Amino acid sequence: EVVMTQSPATLSVSPGESATLSCRASQTVSNNLAWYQQKPGQAPRLLIYGASTRATGIPARFSGSGFGTEFTLTISSLQSEDFAVYYCQQYHNWPPATFGQGTKVEIK
Amino acid sequence: EEQLLESGGGLVQPGGSLRLSCVVSGFTFSDYGMNWVRQAPGKGLEWVTAISGSGASTYYADSVKGRFTISRDNSKNTLYLQMNSLRAEDTAIYYCAKGKAAGGTSSLLDYWGQGTLVTVSS
User: Fold this and answer.
1) What residues does B23 pair with on adjacent strands?
2) By CB neighbour count within 10 A (0-12 exposed, 13-18 middle, 19+ buried), where does B15 fall?
3) Considering only CB atoms, which chain B residues are within 8 Å of A91?
4) How many other C-beta atoms lie within 10 A of the C-beta of residue A17?
């Protein structure tokens, strides 16, 4: 099983600033890496797939990068609606598909 | 517009059974693999199971293998999850989610339902 590790667990950011979230895989997942956003009481929403491709309707302030075992999600100029929990997920070596434990982006 | 609506959650005793349903609309259901993902209260996401568009292939997490069964009725645009021998650790919100890639079984999930809560407790 591929273990996904996200850091940090919590990120405190002021509105308008940028946030950088990290995700590491225990073995290579190529570029088969997705990021999801989840707000309280809501289902997750796909943000990024293929490590760097934005999903339909996702604003350009969300960008992803990385390959192999190290990945990054960057949110530039954070808006109020961006404060949420973010999960990375590998879909390269499955079953099982595996998620990171999540990074909570909170208002500083 | 793709829509997924789960139902069937509730309170069940340990060792009991429950069947979840997920009715979908807005896409050709039989073209896409489907998944169930769960989230224990206050915890992260856990992939549970997936099924191909035809229903011929199924995949399970070790934690549910032999206890849960995924199935689908393409004539009814409905996905199912039969859960038997339920344990307290199965308590979670269960989401159905659509695989992104047509023609195969994908665990890249582009549309999710709102979830249904399953509570296993005596």
Assistant:
1) B5, B78
2) exposed
3) 106-108
4) 12
A-chain residue closest to B37, CA distance:
A97
> How would DSSP label each residue in B51-110?
E-SSS--EEE-TTTTTTEEEEEETTTTEEEEEE-S--GGG-EEEEEEEEEEETS----EE
B114 contacts A95? CB cut-off 8 A: no
How far apart CA B96 and CA B73 sit, in angstroms, is 14
Contact A14, A107 (CB under 8 A): yes
pLDDT at position A15: 94
Q: What SS3 class is residue A57? A: coil
Cβ pair B114:A89 closer than 8 A: no
Chain A residue numbers with beta carbons less than 8 Å from the beta carbon of B104 are: none
- In the A/B pair of chains, how many CB contacts fall below 8 A? 63
The answer to whether the CB atoms of A96 and B47 lie below 8 A apart is yes
Residue B75 Rama label (left phi>0; alpha psi -120 to 50; beta): alpha
Note the pLDDT tens digit of each residue in A13-58: 999 999 999 999 999 999 999 999 999 999 999 999 999 999 999 9
- Residue A99 near chain B (CB below 8 Å): yes
Q: Can you list the residues of chain B whose pLDDT is less than 70?
A: none
- Cβ contacts (< 8 Å) between A56 and chain B: which residues? 110
What is the spatial distance between Cα A46 and Cα A106, in angstroms, rounded to a whole number?
19
Q: How does DSSP classify residue B119?
A: E
Within 8 A of A94 by CB-CB distance, chain B residues are 47, 59, 107
